[in-house]
Amino acid sequence: MLLVANSAAVVGEGDAAEATQLAHLESHELLLGDALVGEASLQFLSQAQGYLASEPADCASLPQYLEGVASNASLSGNQDGVDYSVAAVGSRWSGGAAGDNLTTLAPFAGADETSLDVRVVAVVNETAGGGAVLWFKEESHLLHIPIAPESAASLCASTLGGLGQAFGQVPPCNATSDAAAFSAALPPLVEEASSLGFTLDAGWSLGGSEGCYVSYWVTLVEPGVEGVAGGFDWTVLGAGEAA
Amino acid sequence: MDIAVGTGYAVICLMLVSAMNPIGSEEAGSQLSSQSRLDSAIGGYVRSVGMVALAYSPQEDLCHAAAEMSNSTLVLDPIVDGNGCLSAPQSPVATSSLSLSLPGRTVVVEAWLARE
């Protein structure tokens, strides 16, 4: 944090009222600076939630999808004689669990290994009193969005792998056998998904001119994730083929 | 912490003012003390309630929290998109406010110091 004030010149002129006003501006700049970091961080989390709620993930590209939460947030204006701007850059954080002191963002402050962790770097600039008080700070904060990416990756592997294995064990080009294999394979996969907080829907169809390969798909949903803007469902899609 | 440092700095500035220009310093000191107290109260309210609640909770919840942190002389009022919980006092000793641009709405936290 950098705070530069030109109070001495004011004192030299003996203008008590002006010095008092300057001192108040300094106090208010500090209050505003802390609030701006919180506002920008909340804006980033809100944008990230919008992305996660509206864009389903794909099992085949889950890491890239998670990197897609990266975004910028910025605010600027004037409050009580203080000109301010804040620019925040948020991105995925893979550095492991760690606490954070941005308590105004509770309960989303800190990195949590079971969630999607993000890092926000906020740069705040403020000026007041016609440039008599300049204020700058750069802060980095770790936050989390309580979806479960590792569980999703694990379920992608187990459900697509399980269905692929089931279809691979029956004779090709036989819809009756494929249907029986699917029906037998699905219940334990649904149960596994449920144990990790997801719902699982799946389907299959015969493909090719001879109907000799099976296309199958899964939809994993983590329902009611409690984000900053309320509950949302996070969806992960997967698909595979068996000859 | 930052607010405490800033307030401390402000007080030092004021002491310099007092030493060099005693005329009017008592009034200036009182004014600065009031403003710092209001800023501190606003900061405490924001930290206590949190940005998430300020952005998304029903206003009555914010009003309730503000009432709990107010007393007979210091009054906090969260104004959501122009609608406050209270009517402003007629002649407060000092006022301060913090405007928050939050997703979906603007919240202005006002603080007043009423005459005892």
Structure at a glance:
The complex is a heterodimer of chains A (243) and B (116). Chain A has 243 residues and is an alpha+beta fold.
Structure commentary:
The complex is a heterodimer of chains A (243) and B (116). Chain A is of the alpha+beta class and 243 residues long. Chain A starts with a strand and ends with a strand. Chain A has 2 domains: 2-145, no CATH class; 150-242. Chain A has a 5-stranded antiparallel sheet, with helices on one face. A 4-stranded mixed sheet of chain A has the order 2-9-8-7. Chain A is rod-shaped, with a radius of gyration of 27 Å. Helices cover 38% and strands 37% of the residues of chain A. Chain A has helices at 7-12, 16-54, 62-67, 149-168, 175-195, and strands at residues 2-5, 57-58, 71-79, 82-92, 116-128, 133-145, 199-207, 213-227, 230-242. Chain B is of the alpha+beta class and 116 residues long. Chain B has one domain. Chain B has helices at residues 2-20, 25-49, 51-56, 59-69, and strands at residues 74-80, 94-102, 105-113. Chain B has a 3-stranded antiparallel sheet. In chain B, helix 1 packs antiparallel against helix 2. The longest helix of chain B is centred in the N-terminal third of the chain and has 25 residues, at 25-49. Chain B is elongated, with a radius of gyration of 16 Å. The chains are: A alpha+beta (243), B alpha+beta (116). Chains A and B meet through helix 1, helix 2 and strand 3 of A and helix 1, helix 2, helix 3 and strand 2 of B.
